[in-house]
Amino acid sequence: GFPGDAVTGPWDSAGKTWGDDATRFHEEFSHALCVLVCVDDEEHPDNRVALDPDYGPDENGRVPLVSYRGTAESVRRREWLSVKAAEILRAAGARHIHRSDLDVYVSHPMGTMRMGGDPRTSMVNERGEAHEVPGLFIADNSVFPNGLGGPNPTLTCQALATRTADAVAARYV
User: Mean of the per-residue pLDDT values for the chain?
Assistant: First the structure.
């Protein structure tokens, strides 16, 4: 196995790997299945995005500093899901389970209300209006056809929101 930081759980190793272990881990990565455990976090008064006093400004301006600490309930949920994920992987035949925690993970979930012309395979039409609820417009990245990686969707989401706003204005203004 890959020695990692000691973390109690149903995984074989955890944390960062170095040297030969990291090389072996990387060589075997094409045979790996990664599972991301994601929970809704409660508010925590210390969580914030601020300007980093030690870095910047650079050519893009000031550098953000993200401060995050999960509540006890958020940590409990994440731990429970991590154990379940490891149990599922083990039951599916995984020979080695490595847990790698990220302090902050930024994701762009999208694609839950697919845009398309066929109400049988999509939720909204090309203007972002729900097929089954006239007058209900969806103007975010949930109308994307999928959420499979790729570049940051911010500009595309803004363009879709603008187009949807134009459709709403054309109908009601």
Answer: 83
